[in-house]
Amino acid sequence: MASKTQSAQRKARIEEMRRAERARERRNRIITITASAVVVGALVAGGAYLLNKESEQKEQKEAAAKAPVTDEKSWDAKKLGRNHVTENVSYPMTPPVGGDHNQVWMNCEGDVYKDPIPNVNAVHSLEHGAVWVTYNEKAADDDVKKLGERVEKTPYSLMSPVKEQSGALMLSAWGKQVTVDSATDPRVEQFFTKYVQGPQTPEPGAACTGGMGQQ
């Protein structure tokens, strides 16, 4: 009789242990499913946020590209010469925004030149779709530094001093030019967005490396 009682008690304990194990497994499944749902929800929300942000940035860039740059000067691109010459060229604007030029371009893969560069080579870079940032001795050192950092991050751009220019800080592309007030002038970003490999480019996709660098 005692043996049957003990056996029944063991079976009861075993059954209780099994019920507890099944309960733990159910709780673990619920926790796992809930955690997975939270992670998936976070990933979906994060992905949607990034997509929305990218879409918003794209729209902002497109809007900037379409909007006119305040106080920008323009020249008829079709009337700017594109012949390759070996001699110096007298350009009607400083810095030049186009015209006949040397067959070798200045490297413009984010190159910042500390000394003046030949106009005839820089103009060839503009023909390839580069934006040329220039400054004179009136420019604040901090503005020059910040613009240099901006150029270094931007393929198809270059920067150099031009002592003879009228404005302290100027940006040029093929047939386009603007004088800005500072490195933080919103027209800087707009000009880069609009004209780096922009629609004004006579030779889109042409190289900005393999040309002439400053020793």
TrEMBL record:
- Segment Disordered: which positions? 1-26
Residues crossing the lipid bilayer are 30-51
Alphabetized UniProt keyword annotations: Membrane, Transmembrane, Transmembrane helix
Q: Where is the composition biased (Basic and acidic residues)?
A: 12-24
> What name does UniProt use for this protein?
DUF3105 domain-containing protein
What species was this sequence derived from?
Streptomyces hebeiensis
